[in-house]
Design brief:
alpha/beta; Rossmann fold; Histone, subunit A; globular
Amino acid sequence: MIRVPILTAPTASGKSALAVHAALAAPGPVEIVAADAFTVYRGLDIGTAKPTVAERQGVFHHLLDKVDVGDGYDVTRFVEDAEAAVHATLARGAVPLIVGGTGFYLRALLRGLPTTPPADPDVRRAVEDDLAARGLDALLAEIRTADPAEEARMQRNPRRVVRAVELLRRTGQLPGHYPLRPPAFAGDVIAYERPADETARRISARTRDMLAGGWPDEAAWLAAQVDPDTDPQPTVWQALGYRDALAVQRSQLEVEEAAARIDLATRQYVKRQATFIRTQLGATLLSKADAAQRLAARLAGGECEV
C-alpha cells in the first residue's frame, strides 16, 4: 500500500510554513493537501489563518477555498476529496504531503470511513426538531443509553449528535458500530508541538494580529451569508473565535476582551489536539526541529513509500 507523508501539529504551531519550506527544499515536486475543516471554505481567510497565495510560495495546495460558506462539507467529502488529490498528485509524478490539524479528518483518512447508510431527510428533520425542543443534552442521553463510548466520541458537536441519533432511531446502531471501509493509502504521520509557553505567546500574538487585520469584518461578512443563530449551529460558526470577532464588529465586546476569550479557547483546543494526535493517530509529538528534520528526510526520498 502507498504510504503518504502527513504533517500535523496543534493550531498556531506554524505547520503550514514548515510544510511549504520543506516542499521547496525537496529534490522533486511536492503538492500539499490541506486537512483542515475550515480553510476549505471560501472567504474564511483571516480567522482560519489560511496561508495566503504569497505564503504558499508557488507550492500547489489542494482543498483550500473549495466550497462556499453556505454549503455543507463533512468528513466523508473530505476523505473523498483528499484521496482524489493524492492520486492526482501521484499521477503527475509529484509527492503528496498532507498537512493539517483537524484530527478526525486525519483519523478517517488513515482508518477509513464507516460504512453508514445515507441520511434520511425526514428522520433527520425530526431529530433536528427534537434538538430545538429538548436540547443537546437530551439527545446525548439517548446516545449514552445505547453506548457511552459513542456519546464521548460526539464531543458535543450538534451535527454529529443529530446524525448519530438519526441512525440510532432508524437502524438501532450508532456511527461507531458500523465497520470501516479500507483506507486508500497508509500514512507516515510526522507530528510535533511547541513548548507550552511558546505556544501561548504565539496564540496571543496571532489573535491580536488577526483582530487588527480585519477578522471582525470577515466575521460580519460571514454573518451576512450564514445566520450564526441557526439551530443546530452551522458548521462554519464552529470555527474558533468567529463569534467573538463578530461581537467586536458589533461593538458588543472590546478588542482585548475578545482576544482574551479567543486566547483561552485556542489554548484549550491545542491541548485537545495534542491528546488526539497521541491517542487517536498514534503519533509521538516531536519537537519542531526534529519534525522538520524527519520531514525533510522523508521528502528527500522523492517517492511515496510502498
